[in-house]
Amino acid sequence: MRRPIELGVAAEAPANRARLALVSQLEAAGIYAATDAGAFYPQPFGVLVGLPSLVGRTLSARRFTIPVLVVSGDPLNTPHTVDGLYALADDVANVIREISYRPSTFRGSANAEPLPAIELEANVTVTETEET
Fold first, then answer.
1. Range 28-35 contact pairs with CB under 8 angstroms and sequence separation of 24 or more
2. What's the pTM value of the predicted model, to 2 decimals?
């Protein structure tokens, strides 16, 4: 007797749902955010959403922290460029309700010079879903 073939749809991982929810939140506020670090290059500035870290879990939800980089494609050698980078970082901080950020760098590839950046950390909670 042959057994029936079971087909199922894999549920989206909660970490990925948290990341996509953060991107949607930023885009709803008019801030384009990229998730592909390999294809990301800021012109003149860009927002890159990193990979989530699980920081807490309840019976019905998971809490993640997600790094967000606001990156300048230009060196920070003029007040205008510095102001632009920090203005965008302030906008992102307001959207994700973060009260602090810090200077950082972003390296697009192994051969590229690091680009100046501002690093923020977003806190995102997503509900659990049942896998079928």
1. 29/91, 29/95, 31/88, 31/91, 31/92, 31/95, 33/68
2. 0.85
pLDDT band at 128 (very low <50, low <70, confident <90, very high): confident
User: What is the mean pLDDT of the segment spanning 29-50?
Assistant: 92
Region 14-127: CATH code = 3.30.2000
Name the percent of the chain lying above pLDDT 70.
88
How far apart, in whole angstroms, are the C-alpha atoms of residue 56 and residue 80? 40
Using CA atoms, how far apart are residues 54 and 33, in angstroms rounded to an integer?
A: 21
The domain limits of the chain are 14-127
